[in-house]
Batch of 2 targets.
Target 1
Amino acid sequence: MRRTAWLAAALFWSAFAVLEAMNHGWLAGTLALVFLVLPDLTFLVAVDDAPHMAKGQLPPRAVPYYNAMHRALIPLALLVAYAFGPFTWAPAFAALCGWLAHISYDRAFGYGLRTKEGYQRG
């Protein structure tokens, strides 16, 4: 049931990102796409350690970055700040939608935060 809810959220945030791209142009679409991919680029922080890790293990050096980019509370807090703050720039909102879509897809497909050793949390 929880994974179904995450999938619904992922589809919602994806649709919202596409809507923002359609309404506000290529920059909003580009930022939404970049932030859809960006959280997984944290793997590159310790790419040189990857061959020495067990299957499914993220190098411990990359875990803080990975977990920071995969916590839904961060983009949600930024969305609230965006909604109530004086800052209004549609591409930033589209980027946050893309970021939330990424996190939601990960949770829907069973990927979550990592332990300090780099393994998926149970």
Target 2
Amino acid sequence: MLVTALVVGFAISLFQSVTQIQEVTLSFVPKAIAVSVALLISGHWMIQEAVTFTQTIFERIPSLLGG
């Protein structure tokens, strides 16, 4: 997500500096759309990784407490 926002933000900033268009929404809207698309594409994987991590941590709690 962050890399997507960084790349799109850099591209828009470069476009704005070349064309001298200084509009705030011109940089915000494409970044929001790109991050939303990245979230739609990788969201299922991220949730699956978070659930697996949480389950593993909860399964290890007894061994960490010495039980």
